[in-house]
Protein 1
Amino acid sequence: MSEIKSGVAVLPPRPKTIREKEAELAKLTEEEKLKTRCCFTGHRPQKLTRPIDDIKVDLENEILQSIKEGYTTFITGMAYGTDIWAGNIVVRLKDRFPDLKLIAAVPFPAFPEGWEDEWRKKYERLIEKADMVKIISDDYSPAVYQKRNEWMVDRCSRVIAVYDGRAGGTRNTINYARRHKVPVRYLKG
């Protein structure tokens, strides 16, 4: 509805187009973008000690809290379990929050080979829905998972971790984030 000031109608601003929003985002510095990015780390389902549905509820609540605090871009490492659940939650929330973006950080192209069919299909569907896919390495190497994790942490200002204290990639990611002063939000795994 327009407002009348001194005999002149003042119309509300029109909503920005997608192209205008993208142009604004392109103007942001990398440091400004970093402040709106969050990544995920967490255990595979077989390592979790809590019911999966409870973990998914906690993940969604933490993602919603992050959105409330200004986070709009989420990075998933695309591993089965926590990463794929979190990525799917972000995709689903795009209906309510259309400015959300999902970046899929894939360690290497053949990453899901050898997975159960159900997980491989979830992976493929999530890749299709991601706003950006970053392939970390062309080939597998023992270090590629840590390189992926470091790539994610280096590009965010918050880590959401589903973690139960045991050694492994999740702990390594958390330790890397701590060394680089990136805050970690913990959800019990």
Protein 2
Amino acid sequence: MEIVLKIGLVLSGGKSSRMGKDKSAMKVGKETMLEHSINMLNSVNLDNVVVSGADFDIPDLFPNKGPVGGIYSAVQHLSLSTGDIILVIPNDMPLLRPDLLQRLMQQSVIHQCTFTYKNHPMPLSLFISEGILERLQSLKNSTGMSIRYLIQADKVEELSVESQDVFSNVNTPQELDEAVQNYRKMCSQ
């Protein structure tokens, strides 16, 4: 099977309720978390980078269906099909590095299957298969779907990583403060 498209997808459809304001606009370092996410994906050799969410490139076709709703919307909007790969990241992982994303994408291309990092559903290099497409279609009639359930529709491989910190999500003001401190430490090394 030949890989047709490699797409980068930033999920930015959440409500930011625990933060109290739009997380994507919050700064860690010199850029917002959304800008950081877009720049991380642009550093990987992809055909296109898009943002899903109500105010972005691809609005959710099924609001309130979580991250898988954003993935479903991207697959539909971009007419993705079997053999395509979507490199999916949330807009709230400000410590994520481009080499980790590149590694995920490379492994999906080589092995033609979905790749994640051990114990982390995201970032996710989602290899589109018939099983994945069938699970996405079933989202219409469900209240939601977890990433783990979606990717179990086909072969999934996990990669190890030296530090779990890079996968930290920022959902609260306290987590934002911690991310800013960790970012400063990373920059000073």
